[in-house]
DNA-directed RNA polymerase subunit omega (Billgrantia bachuensis), 86 residues
Amino acid sequence: MARVTVEDCLDNVENRFKLVMISTQRARQLSRGSRDAQLPWENDKPTVMALREIAAGLVDHTVLDEPIEAPVRIRREGEPGMSFEE
C-alpha cells in the first residue's frame, strides 16, 4: 500500500481547507457504510480510503452536497470494511 500525501490530493482539490472538508465527509460515508468504496480496501481505515479516492480523482467537492447523516447500512459477515462489534 502506497502512502497518500496531501500533495497527491491537492492535484484534484483547490486548497487544503476544501481537502479537509471533502475527506471528512467521505470518511464519514465510508465508516457508516452509506456509500461503497470506489477502490479496493487494502486494510485501510475510512480516513485513508477517503484520501486515496481523492488522490485518484474519484471523489470531488460534490460529496459535500450529500447529507451528513447518511443512513446506516449493516455490513454482511465477511464484507470488507471496519467492524464495530463490542
